[in-house]
Amino acid sequence: MLTRIVPRYPALVINGNEKSLVIADLHLGFEAKLSSNNIYLGKNTSVTETAKDIEKILGLKGLDSEEEKNEAIVKKANIKKKQNIAETKIIEKKIEEREVPVARVTFNHGSSQLSDEDLLKIKKVANIVKKRHNDGNEIIVVVSAMSGVTNELIKKSNLISKNFDNKELDVLLSSGEQVSCSLLSGALIDLGVKARSWLGWQIPIVTNDNHTSSQIMKIKTGEILNFISKKGVAVIAGFQGISKEIRITTLGRGGSDLSAVAVAKFFKTDSCEIYTDVKGVFTTDPSINEKAKKIDKISYEEMLEMASLGAKVVQPNAVQASMMDNIPIHVRSTFSETSGTKIIPESEIDYKKIVTGVAYSKGNAKVSVVGVVDKPGVAADVFEPIGKNNINIDMVIQNTSLDGKKANITFTIKREDLKKTLSLIEKNKQKLNYNKITQDDKLAKISIIGAGMQANAGVTHKMFRSLADEKINILAISTSEIKISVLIREDLTQKAVKALHKTFGLN
């Protein structure tokens, strides 16, 4: 085997059974990248000149014309392009058919304002992701905005206009997730992890056009699947998507949880893990009852009730979506390696307690429309204008007088909706023909939740007796198969929660 250095060229020719050329420092990257995207260069370019040099060095007969050279480049680029498309299709096919073992984890992470402590949170999440990635998992991370950011952006929109356009509001509010997305991706890259951030419109995450409360219709998976199959970590901005009209949309408060569940669905992940500042779902709020305990397993139905009734660990819409598509959720702490709470089907839980948890919500108001005529349609007349103004009604009680001619309609709403609700009822006074309106805006709703209640009698009596022993008066009651809710004075919230927590053996 003979070798020779080529004068004036950064090259070495090796003569053996085959003639080989070793070349350095050609700087072909720019032209090659262009050609791979079907952009081709003509005469007197570095590509053309380099081709001539190679032919000269090796003593080879070149192509007959520049057109032939360009044709060869085009052919090579098309082959590469077809290869890439084929590889992507294979990946998607294997994922769809579950032909390859997939250990993909979806995280949802939210941190607070960018203080030293919160920078530490982001770095902590990055280290968790790195560890899971090093274990061989394919990972997609869904991030939320740092806490407080969305509220601050809403305040800014209100300074501009009290009727800020919802389409523009979505553009504004989605920026919070963009910041988190970039910061986490940057933190991962700093740790030596191949990472890239994606905004909703880049994927795209396609939603309907119901701005500020959109629903996810479809997520295109090809590009991200290709990226994570090559040892990359995809970081997706939650809470956002894009409509068919090519407008940025958002999913409503807590929508990053919903994004995480949707990603788990469309990417067919093995799990959906939601990382928060708490260790999981607790039997009640630890901040008002120090004896609250972490729940290891909870059913979709129970979690949906708890989330709707005041427990803020997971967004209710996200729980409902996971239940519909049977996607297990694992709620875990960013700061602890211990197992959190698994949200799973009821059939997979061995219930040992009647009640799973105690939830509460403050800031409730009670309105009573006294002395309306007891006839068909009167309740509809009371609630129609309220509903048209997007005010949610919670508990409803209707009492009829002894003579059956008059009735009192009592219902609960959020405190912030009270003033508007009273105004709507008063505007409708002539039609309703009521005697008076009474109201109380310093109320709380206390609820016990548990699938075990379905097969056990006496739960209602036990709850009411527990509150009575604490001298707590019940103002309204509502029930379902797995929950009982009562309305009480707001200042008695902690006392009621502690009493019920103890009564049902949750301490």
Structural overview:
- With 507 residues, the protein is α/β, with parallel strands linked by helices.
- The protein folds into three domains: 29-94, no CATH class; 104-277, Carbamate kinase; 358-503, VC0802-like.
- 38% of the residues lie in helices and 24% in strands.
- It has 16 helices and 21 strands.
- The chain has helices spanning 29-36, 46-58, 66-97, 116-134, 149-160, 166-173, 175-190, 222-229, 255-266, 300-308, 316-324, 378-388, 418-427, 429-432, 459-469, 493-503, and strands at 2-5, 11-15, 19-23, 104-109, 138-143, 195-198, 205-207, 216-219, 233-237, 240-242, 248-250, 271-276, 297-299, 329-333, 341-344, 357-373, 396-400, 406-414, 436-449, 476-480, 483-489.
- The strands form five sheets. The protein has an eight-stranded mixed sheet, sandwiched between helices.
- Strand 7 (205-207) and strand 8 form a beta hairpin.
- Helix 4 packs across helix 7 (175-190), helix 9 packs parallel to helix 11 (316-324) and helix 15 crosses helix 16 (493-503).
